[in-house]
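INTERNAL AUDIT FORM
Audit reference: QA-55
Scope: verify that the stored structure record matches its stored sequence.
Auditor: D.O.
Record contents follow.
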Amino acid sequence: MSPIDTLDQAANSVRASQLPSAEKLKRMSPEQARKAAVEFEGFFIAMTLENMFSGIETDGLFGGGHGEKIFRSMMLQEYGKKIAERNGIGLADAVQREIIRLQEVQGDDPK
């Protein structure tokens, strides 16, 4: 595994850790649930795009190398965010409904 792959995995772990945990769900307003759902969809789309773009070879003369891998990763993260912000693939709607459903099931009873 190259150092860049290790850095990509670490960055993905950090991004995933920034998503809200199940413990925080019962304190979310509908607007916060929507925001979390859109962020999740953006992350999901970015991961999907990274897999799609992994098979594209770069031109050795004007591209390639570690800088391009980092740039491509950042570019695909932004693509994912923008696609999700513009109603994406419908995943955010399903995630938001599930967050609200979980909050209703959990109620306000502390564990």
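Auditor finding: record pair retrieved intact. Helices lie at 3-17, 30-53, 65-85, 91-106.
Action required: none
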